[in-house]
Amino acid sequence: MLYLLPAYLSENSPIDYFAPTIKDIIMNVDHYFVENEKTARKVIKFFAPEKKQPQLKLFLLDKYSETADLKEAQKLMKEGVDFGLLSEAGLPCIGDPGNIMVGWSHSNHIKVIPINGPSSFVLALIASGFNGQQFSFHGYLPIDKEKKKKEIQNLENLVNKTGFTQIFMETPYRNNQLLEDLTKFLNPNTKLCIAANINDPETELIQTKTIADWKKNKPELHKIPAVFLIGK
């Protein structure tokens, strides 16, 4: 089996936000594909503090990984060893390279089992007030200033033309600069939803305002996980 396990979006997320089956799986699985070892160990401890960390066998699966780099793990899976797959936050395979091993598993007749959990962009979408029937998730916008400006304006044009909600994110330490660019390049009447620290009972921010209103009072988003949505 390859279990696709959720990670928390905030370390302060209440444990009862999650299905009890996650702990059961972690207690019975020792092998994991992880995007970040330190984060994965914290997530495992969050769900199953009794799990003995030394018995864990973690295989790094990041944007540079290829299936050829994971031959030891593949051999174990073919021999019948169960694996879990953990992202840094939320559900795996969205905004991370977990699909590499999911695709391999399908090709090698290994059962893939997705487990319910939070997805930051889905939670942001349903809380935004925007069109939830038709939307696009773009992941990360370009870093280059001119390419980013062009992409921001392209997303705004898509909203105006189709009504489809446009969803994207940024590396947390660049959030403030992204918000600055959004308020600079978008029309003042365009609506923007910012969803930050989702699932944190104390600091969660989810608000939809026009660009004109955001300009009056920009939130501090430096190093805070956030999702941005443009919509109607």
UniProtKB/TrEMBL annotation:
SUPFAM superfamilies: Tetrapyrrole methylase. Keywords: Cytoplasm, Methyltransferase, rRNA processing, S-adenosyl-L-methionine, Transferase. One of its GO terms (biological process) is rRNA processing. Residues 24-197 form the Tetrapyrrole methylase domain. One of its GO terms (molecular function) is methyltransferase activity. This is 16S rRNA (Cytidine1402-2'-O)-methyltransferase. It comes from Epilithonimonas arachidiradicis. The lineage of its organism: Bacteria, Pseudomonadati, Bacteroidota, Flavobacteriia, Flavobacteriales.
